[in-house]
Model the fold of this input.
Amino acid sequence: MPYENLEISTPSPVLSWANHPLKSDEIKMAKNVASLPFVFKHVALMPDVHLGKGALVGSVIATKEAIIPAAVGVDIGCGMMAIKTPFKGEQLEGKLKKIRLDIEAAIPTGFNENKDVEKTVTNWQRWGDFKDLHRGVQDLQGKAMRQMGSLGGGNHFIEVCLDTENSVWLMLHSGSRNIGNNLAQCHIHTAKELAKMAGNNLPDPDLAYFVAGTPEFQAYWHDLQWSQDYARVNRDVMMARFKRIVEKHLAGGKAIKPLLEVNCHHNYAEKEIHFGEDVYVTRKGAVRAQEEDYGIIPGSMGAKSYIVKGKGNAHSFCSCSHGAGRLLSRNKAKNTYTLDDLIEQTKGVECRKDTGVLDEIPGAYKPIEQVMANQSDLVQVEATLKQVLCVKG
Done:
């Protein structure tokens, strides 16, 4: 489906691939962002767009000489990783529960941390410049090292999936953990304080920004890139552990070579060239989808997920959605659904089936098939996956 120009009355247009008419509070949030003087060309809204903080989740915001830390968000570098294995579905028979228990024992979830720090972590090339991070996180290095290779909570997950040809895929979703959150909060606070001192009349305090060339911009950009690296390595470390567990159960511990490997952010910012100009691109709940880029678009814990390849659509700033997008808030999901509903909606999936994950019930998310139909001009589907095992944070 091609985009729709929302014709919102702002200096910059808003182009939307949304699979639903935007509500008044969503329109207001889009309008606030589009009214900022440094927004480049237009704001692009992905099919899974929904309310966020400052900017809509599912926004792609290109800017000239400025960046909005709250638009990037607090889970800096959050994203997905997936590998295709040579294993087939029948090899999993009778082994899923043991695999799940091994994953839960090997990979900390929620607020949990590793007891020991792996060699992979201690040798990570960027620990050496921890002292160059914001002073507000200087006492968190030990925690950051122990959380490397941990899942976190909320909608973060680890899954064993099967594609339409019965091949086994390993997939996970996580970000930069406590250290990324703390760095984001420090810089968002600084941006808001600067806006107050400058008397900036912003449509929303969460749209406070840094101007390129200032020390505050440079400090944020440094910490942002550091956090994005941390998030990517975090996924690598978890995937290595996950892969070893599956190899133990399916190949007697013999290491296999992945047939395809994808690791992509969906909460981040980078410097890119669009419409012939250098710009800062913030993807708040969106995946880069330049031509030939591989991406991952997951559904809920009871729905399909997709491995995609980008089409390089210029109007979306070469981006696509990052998932199905929430239909209900966490509290509303808990008040709407019961444990019996969760058991029914996750039938056939080896996973926790308790009230602790009720807010992640598939019914709390938009139908992923509709989200995919709305972005046929942004990506092509390379593989369709369905989970058979899911570990939630």
